[in-house]
Amino acid sequence: MAQFIPSIEKIQQLRVQPTEGEWYLLRFLEKTLDDSFEVYFTPFLNGDRPDVIIMRKGGGVMIVEVKDWDLDLYEVDEKRHWYLKHPKNEGEAHARLSSPVQQAYKYKENLFDFHIHGLLELKIKDIRRFNFVTCAVYFHNANEEEVKSKLVNPFEKDYKYQNFLKYNIDLLGRDSLNEQRFKKILYSRYFMSSRPSQIFTDDIYQSFKHHLTPTRHLMSEGEAIQYSEDQRDLIYDDKSRSWRVKGVVGSGKTTVLAAKAVESCKRVLAEGRTPRILILTYNITLKNFIRDKLSRVRADFEWSYFTILNYNKFIGTMMNELGIPFEMPQQGPEETHKQYMRRVSSYLNDRYYNNRNLFKGYEESIKNRNGSFFKLTKTEYEVLLDLIRQENPEPESNPIQNAVDLDKYTKTDFLYEVFMTSEAFDELTALLKLKQNVILQGAPGVGKTFSAKRIAYAMMGEKDSSRIEMVQFHQNYSYEDFIMSYKPLENGGFELKSGVFYNFCKRAEANKGKPYFFIIDEINRGNLSKIFGELLMLIEKDYRGTEIKLAYRNELFTVPENLYIIGMMNTADRSLAMIDYALRRRFSFYSMKPGLDTDGFKKEMARHSDERIQKVVYAVKVLNDKISKDDSLGEGFCIGHSYFCGKKADESWIESVVKYDLCPMLDEYWFDSKETCKSEKDKLLDIIK
Q: Quick check: bond before 399 cis, omega within 30?
């Protein structure tokens, strides 16, 4: 029989018992595997708690995630995102659930990247070494064929995904748990090879065993540390709910922290409970330093009592444990890598690391679940939330942004980047300050999106992306995405989740001394009354600061006075409906025109030596004059300057712009006048010959 850690008898005594699926798997492994196998149930890996780990010396490691799900209640889209199959409302329909496949794979990645010393280096040197750890997801309420029809067959042409499964994941149904089938899987993963693995060496095996079964620290291993009177007061204080310690480098703050952690461990043991001491650090480099300080304390304790994590890693671990999806924003087409990384840093802090409501609705799961490294009293849980709610210290909370000081951004910078006259800039900024809600309208290529962020920078006086939020409206965008709605939980039930505009308003409200900018691309593509709901009134400048009760929550909400809204609207798209009149009254409309005659654009064009470029630009100016006078078109259809900007020194790009950008646009403009269309296209094509 396999060796179980903890033993089956101890598992039966756990306060929170294994699920039906977990018990079924454990009993199967008990009767199927011999004593060369070790089976770890919810092993402790400094924060991660996978359901089951199977290990065999000379063979390998398998991480098994167990799901007691009814697969008929879920659907998986083409991107392999999980959703409820029968949502009760639009909010549920858009609620994405955590993929159990990715959850299991994340445990594997963390083993290499964080938990087992030296594995990351081995993985980098030879990716094959990544394969001695494999994963499996066991769906207790489905057979193997049902699992394949849901997660394998629909993606049979996705060779990258099929290879990912081949080398990393076995998908199991209940009928997979028969001795012949399961041992075939183990053989395919080289667990039961006749010769010991040359990759999963004895040293690596011992390292895994050490981490899966933490050792005991003995008093004799510690040191006789002389604490000052102030340090002793803090270490032995058992009345204060929380405290903060400040001091210069070398003043003994971490020494006090380590001693306090050990004393807390002793107190919990004296109360007859199993200690779970969580130590969070914002500085990722302090993890080993804190462990070293703990090892110097003269006391007996189990290392498994302590979890030492970087704060951001802790949030990620908890999200994976609780099945909360982790999403990253996509890089915008006009963003530099530096700009994108700044926005990512701000996005992660706002959405996850500094989000007060991130774990709302998961309280019981955190306090009671075996797989969690917390078993907290209500008071302890509240203390933990207080820690999470505190903003991260600036150097650690936004390391990317703080690595480079925020660049100043002035009117001069704006006019250098955006091809707009000085008078137009003054007019636009004055309008935005007056109305606070402005829609930039114009044809494609006039720089609406590019200008929106830079007008925000100019009004801030610095390039602070953390005070800018950008969304794009579409036909399916709703109040539930924008303000709030109920979202389903993986373990049943629902929780109220706030939307992007609600969260941004709260951020602006907490920092009233600085302006915040909410940018909406394609604002006229959405059903605006449906999206804004009762906030349609609050965005009006005269009602800023006025409170109104939200539809989903008995909460008075306001749009802060330091929040500006900039929308973008394409005037050349005939398929779009006119903007809602109620919303039109609350916005001013600023027409963006081609900047072909601005000084900035002329300087940009001066970089190019190909005379064809200058001729095409002149032809476009003439063409715009004709378009603006056409009764069926007008100024809103003029061709913008963006088609000629940001190009490389290679001059062949002008041919591509004319053939594949401008000519197709003219086909659309004069679809009902073939002669006019052909005449204007020929003028452009003749230039580039």
A: no
Phi/psi of residue 304, nearest 5 degrees: -70, -15
- Cβ distance 20 to 140 under 8 Å? yes
Burial of 541 (0-12, 13-18, 19+ CB in 10 A): middle
Q: Which residues pair with 570 in a beta bridge?
A: 442
Q: How far apart are CA 140 and CA 547, in angstroms?
A: 49
CA 360/CA 362 separation, integer angstroms: 6
Residue spans of the chain under pLDDT 70: 44-48, 90-95, 114-115, 117-129, 214-221, 241, 249, 283-285, 287-288, 320-323, 361-406, 490-493, 572-583, 646-651
Whether domain 406-591 has CATH 3.90.226.10: no
Structure tokens at 517: 């900018």
Which residue, 98, 107, 105, 101, is CA-closest to 40?
Answer: 107
Q: Nearest CA to 456 among 441, 472, 444, 440?
A: 440
Q: At what angle do helices 422-435 and 448-460 cross, to 10 degrees?
A: 70
DSSP string, 208-253: HHHHHSPPEEPGGGS------HHHHHHHT--S-S-------TTSSH
How far apart CA 681 and CA 688 sit, in angstroms, is: 11
**Residues β-bridged to residue 494:** 488
Q: How far apart are CA 637 and CA 591, in angstroms?
A: 11
DSSP string covering 515-542 = -EEEEEETGGGS-HHHHHGGGGTTTSGG
CB 680 within 8 A of CB 626: yes
Q: What percentage of the chain's residues is helix, strand, coil (to nearest 5)?
A: 50, 15, 35
Helix spans in 461-585 (H): 479-482, 500-509, 528-532, 581-584
Taking only the tens place, the pLDDT of each residue in 513-560 is: 899 999 999 888 888 778 888 888 888 888 888 888 887 777 788 999
Q: Taking Cα atoms as reference points, which of 549, 545, 551, 512 lies closest to residue 530? A: 551
In whole angstroms, give the CA distance from residue 566 to residue 548: 23
- pTM given for the model: 0.43
C-alpha to C-alpha distance for 243 and 614, rounded to whole angstroms? 68
Tell me what percent of the residues of the chain surpass a pLDDT of 90: 16
Contact status, residue 562 vs residue 512, Cβ threshold 8 Å: yes
Residue 67 near residue 97, CB atoms below 8 Å: no
